[in-house]
Every structure is written in structure tokens, then in C-alpha cells.
Specification:
By secondary structure, the protein is of the alpha/beta class. It is built from 15 helices and 13 strands. The strands form two sheets. A seven-stranded parallel β-sheet has the order 3-2-1-4-5-6-7, sandwiched between helices. Helix 1 crosses helix 15, helix 3 crosses helix 4 and helix 4 runs parallel beside helix 6.
């Protein structure tokens, strides 16, 4: 039994789907990974069969998108998978269309609606039509939060009987645990981990940092994540360097070891107004017993129990974000530790990766 896992980057498979692939393999399935080639493809090839597929993640050129469908069609006609698990927009749409031509079953994961659904325009209308057409051909559709599920079902973009909700991508609670290391200094560190795009609330984080720094001197504000990403709202590296020069934030670059970076800080902040699925960084941070601050935004609010595991702030409101940061700062170590412990309890109960993997295993069995 051959199962394909397809996404829009090898990076995303490596970071978000590797444990799913490994568990499918342990259960006797032949797992094949399909994504455009990037620097993570070589890592994937060491463990699984991997195939490149043509995909332009930057644009919406219909000719290039048709090439993507043909690329999928030719590949799947050759390797003959039994089921394809699609992740991210273009595999969900174009991979599913190609599979329907070959009568291959598909299980899709709509993990946040991203830029398209934040900035409503002609492209959004086209995307919805493509979703509606393609998802009729899917065998199962998973959503990562109730709001996205409601959006798609109420707008009749999907057949409700095909749909189910997952607790995000889940998190490996055995890997993301607290180290309980003693702090080496008295500096309190807030860290925002995300791709460097405006919709992740980067500007709000910077503005809130300015407010907090007026009253507190022993505080650092850190940014971690890729710059120059394929997104119209990408933040230029020059802007980040300007903030650094003004001593508002420190930019840590990008990292393949997010766990190590989370361990070094006191609180994770994600002031996103991006149309999230369920942000992985909030799951990982909470699993590591770190208090978190995030916005009252789709996907984000599902992870945090306000005033218990962290704080929820208003969207696009740096003053409100700063207030929540100051609240965290004014807690005792004992109170912050208790908040972190409550966060991990919530993750284990609701967001353990095993829940997601078991749902996939059961769905695959149902579709064999």
C-alpha cells in the first residue's frame, strides 16, 4: 500500500509531517514524499522515497498552475499511489485534481487560510472557486480549527459529510518538554517565532516592545524566523536591521532547532492576524511549559486559555499587547511556572500529535 504525503515545500514536510510519515511507515505503509525541491529534500531522501514536483509558490499564473496539475498527473501515473495526503493550498487543489483524473483517493488538510483570506480580492474569489471544484473530488477533508471548518461548510465550498477537525498538526509532547534550567541572568526575554511577514504581528510586537522598554530595562525582545519569504507581505531585512540598530529587538535569524531557542526565553509571543490553522509554535512553547501571549485570532485563541496558560490580546493593538507583556513581567516566578504547567496539561489533553496520527491512520483504513 503506497501513501504519498505532498506539500508545497520539502521544508514543511520536514518540520510538520515527518512524524506522520514515520508512523505510517511503522504501520506497514510504503510512504512517498512529494514536494518542490529545496535544501530539505536531501534530508527527506535519506529516509523516504522523495519526488520533486513543479510548483510556483509565489504566484497565481494559470499556465504555471496547470503545469503543476500535469506534473502531479505524470508523477502519480508513474508511481501509482493508493492514497495521497495533501497539505497546503496548491497540493490540496491541484494535487487533488490530478488524483481525480487517475481515480486516486485523497485526504486533504486545510491548515489555515493564510494571506488569501486575510486580504480579500479577486484572487480570493478564484481560490474559493478552485477549492469548491477540487474538494468535491476529495475523499476526506481535515481542518485545523473550527472557524475554518465553519467558513468552508457555510459557504458550501466543501461537502460537510467529508469534513472533520484536527487539533492542528499536533505536537510531539515527548520531544517538547521543559528542561527546567536555571536562568543565568535576570533578563526577561520575549520571543516571536514566525516567518517575517507583517501579518504575523511583527510590527505590533516591535511597537509593544517600545512601550514596555520605557518602564523596564531588564527585558529583551527577540525575533526568530525566515526573511525574504514568498509572500506579498514579507518584511525586508533592511527594516529588521533598522529595528536592531534602534535597539528595539534582536533578530536571531532562522533555526532548525526551535526547541533550543524556546528553552532560552521566558515567554513566547505571537500577535498574529494571519489566517492561521493552529500555530505550531504556540503548541511547542506550551508543551515546554512556557507562558504564551497571542491574539484573539482564528487558530491562535484555541491554544491558549486566557489568564490560565497565557494571555490573549486584541488584534493589531500594540498597546493592549504591551499590557499583557507587563502582566507577564509582574507575575512571580511561581505564578509563571504554574501558568506553564497548565499550558502543558492543555497540550497533552488536546493537542498531542498522537491524536492527529491516529485520526490519519483510521481515515486511511476507512479508505483502503
Amino acid at each position: 500500500m503506497k501513501i504519498v504525503i505532498s506539500s508545497n515545500t520539502s521544508w514543511s514536510i520536514y518540520n510538520f509531517r515527518l512524524n506522520l510519515a514515520r508512523n505510517l511507515s511503522k504501520n506497514g505503509y510504503k510512504v512517498i514524499l512529494v514536494a518542490p525541491r529545496d535544501k530539505y529534500s536531501e534530508i527527506l531522501e535519506k529516509e523516504f522515497d522523495y519526488y520533486d514536483v513543479f510548483m510556483n509558490n509565489k504566484g497565481t499564473n494559470p499556465i504555471e498552475d496547470f503545469k503543476t496539475i500535469i506534473s502531479y498527473y505524470r508523477l502519480y501515473k508513474d508511481i501509482k499511489p493508493n492514497i495521497v495526503l495533501n497539505f497546503t493550498i496548491k497540493p490540496n487543489i491541484y494535487g487533488t485534481i490530478a488524483c481525480s483524473w487517475l481515480k486516486i483517493k485523497t485526504i486533504n488538510n486545510i491548515a489555515g487560510l493564510g494571506y488569501l483570506f486575510v486580504h480579500q480580492n479577486l484572487v480570493t474569489i478564484i481560490a474559493k472557486k478552485l477549492y469548491k471544484y477540487s474538494q468535491k473530488k476529495a475523499n476526506k477533508i481535515f481542518f485545523q480549527n473550527r472557524e475554518d471548518y465553519k467558513t468552508f461548510t457555510t459557504q458550501k465550498l466543501v461537502d460537510i459529510e467529508k469534513c472533520d477537525i484536527l487539533p492542528g498538526s499536533g505536537v510531539d509532547v515527548n520531544k517538547f518538554t521543559s528542561s527546567n534550567k536555571e536562568k543565568e541572568d535576570n533578563i526577561f526575554r520575549f520571543l516571536l517565532i514566525a516567518r517575517m511577514i507583517w501579518d504575523k504581528g511583527i510590527d505590533e510586537f516591535v511597537e509593544a516592545a517600545k512601550i514596555v522598554k520605557k518602564s523596564y530595562s531588564n527585558v529583551e525582545f527577540l525575533l526568530l524566523g525566515e526573511t525574504n519569504v514568498d509572500n506579498p507581505n514579507s518584511i525586508p531585512i533592511e527594516q529588521i536591521k533598522k529595528w536592531e540598530k534602534e535597539e528595539i529587538i534582536k533578530y536571531l535569524g532562522s533555526s532548525d532547532n526551535v526547541k533550543e531557542e524556546i528553552e532560552k526565553v521566558d515567554c513566547i509571543v505571537l500577535p498574529s492576524y494571519y489566517r492561521e490553522g493552529t500555530p505550531r509554535v504556540l503548541l511547542e512553547a506550551s508543551s515546554m511549559e512556557k507562558p504564551v501571549i497571542t491574539t484573539n485570532n482564528v487558530g491562535c485563541r484555541d491554544v491558549v486559555e486566557d489568564k490560565v496558560t497565557g494571555y490573549i490580546c486584541e488584534i493589531k493593538n500594540p498597546k493592549h499587547l504591551a499590557k499583557k507583556m507587563i502582566k507577564i513581567l509582574n507575575l512571580t516566578d511561581l505564578q509563571r511556572n504554574e501558568m506553564g504547567k497548565k499550558g502543558r496539561e492543555k497540550i497533552i489533553q488536546e493537542f498531542d500529535e498522537k491524536i492527529v496520527i491516529d485520526k490519519y491512520l483510521n481515515t486511511i483504513k476507512d479508505n483502503i
